[in-house]
Amino acid sequence: QVLLVESGGGLVQPGGSLRLSCAASRSIFSINAMGWYRQAPGKERELVAIFTSGSITTYGDSVKGRFTISRDNAKNTVYLQMNSLKPEDTAVYYCNAGILSDNRVMNYWGKGTLVTVSS
User: Fold this and answer.
1) Among candidates 112, 77, 82, which has minimal Cα distance to 95?
2) 76-94: per-residue pLDDT in tens?
3) What are the distances in angstroms from CA 40 to CA 22, 47, 49, 70, 71?
């Protein structure tokens, strides 16, 4: 099991930047997949960015070229640098971890942090 705590959300103007953090309660070396999803009002939760297979990164189409996922293994923390923010980026951003156990993936979620992009 792993506890995930997000931080860094807030209100930002269009074109601005935010950096989100997700701190895990265990070494992220043992987490098979870790990253970020988001959910806007009335929409399904969607992939933002995620590490899989240790270091492979995958980005959602809507954020490619604007968002960057990174990690600090010593701090058990994954980051999401968000640049050139748009109003449509407004959503609750959730940290996600997938842990492989007995050949089954267990998913864990943080409580989320709200990002609002508005002038």
Assistant:
1) 112
2) 999 999 999 999 999 999 9
3) 19, 12, 16, 23, 25
Compute the distance between CA of residue 29 and CA of residue 38 in angstroms, rounded to an integer: 24
Render pLDDT for 34-43 as a digit per residue (tens, 0 to 9): 999 999 999 9
- Per the rule left: phi > 0, alpha: psi between -120 and 50, beta: everything else, 38 is beta
**Which residue in the block uniquely carries the two structure tokens 């942090």?**
113
* DSSP states along 93-115: EEEEEEEEETTEEEEEE---EEE
Among 63, 48, 58, CA closest to 113: 48
Smallest CA-to-CA distance from 47 within 57, 20, 106 is with: 57
pLDDT at 109: 97
Handedness of CA 100, 4, 37, 71 (dihedral sign): negative
What one-character DSSP code corresponds to residue 10?
A: E
